[in-house]
Amino acid sequence: MTDAVRLAPGDPAPDFTLPADDGTEVSLASLLAEDRKVIVYFYPAAMTPGCTKQACDFTESLDSLAAAGYTVVGISKDAPAKLAKFRERDGLGITLLSDTDLTTHEGYGAYGEKKLYGKMVQGVIRSTFVIGADGTVEVAQYNVKATGHVAKLRRDLGLADGAA
């Protein structure tokens, strides 16, 4: 039984360069070069109910997150073509990246042992990271819930709307 590496605030964020749903390549370094903070979230599978809810919640919050200086990217093991269908089907505004070999997932500790229906299995661990403009992890959240996660993250970042 191997435990996944877990990142913590203050750790350097592992860089990545991954294909996006639109065919471009996106790297963490290029996102940080825009002098913005980056929210990187890992989700198990495009077009599943929980992952759709989470992606739609991030999309709905995109304008206010961008205004506060955040860029949002979602990473899954799905191929770019499936991610493009996901974006189209649900009108997603966030950047979706493909990590089919799970290298980036593993670097962030977002793949490993988890409990699923009471059994221990290997799989994607739904996780969210906030990376500062200097490239260090500011927030590391593992085993987050799909529903309500974006609202909780906004509260954690001090960005809660008037409707608390």
Automatic annotation (TrEMBL):
The keyword Amino-acid biosynthesis does not apply. GO terms for cellular component: cytoplasm. PROSITE patterns: THIOREDOXIN_2 (PS51352). It catalyses: a hydroperoxide + [thioredoxin]-dithiol = an alcohol + [thioredoxin]-disulfide + H2O. Coiled coil: none annotated. The keyword Glycoprotein does not apply. Keywords: Antioxidant, Disulfide bond, Oxidoreductase, Peroxidase, Redox-active center. Gene3D superfamilies: Glutaredoxin. Residues 7-162 form the Thioredoxin domain. It comes from the Bacteria. One of its GO terms (molecular function) is thioredoxin peroxidase activity. Its EC number is 1.11.1.24. GO terms for biological process: cell redox homeostasis; cellular response to oxidative stress. It is an enzyme of class 1 (oxidoreductase). Thiol-specific peroxidase that catalyzes the reduction of hydrogen peroxide and organic hydroperoxides to water and alcohols, respectively. Plays a role in cell protection against oxidative stress by detoxifying peroxides and as sensor of hydrogen peroxide-mediated signaling events. Monomer. Belongs to the peroxiredoxin family. BCP/PrxQ subfamily. This is thioredoxin-dependent peroxiredoxin. It comes from Nocardioides caeni.
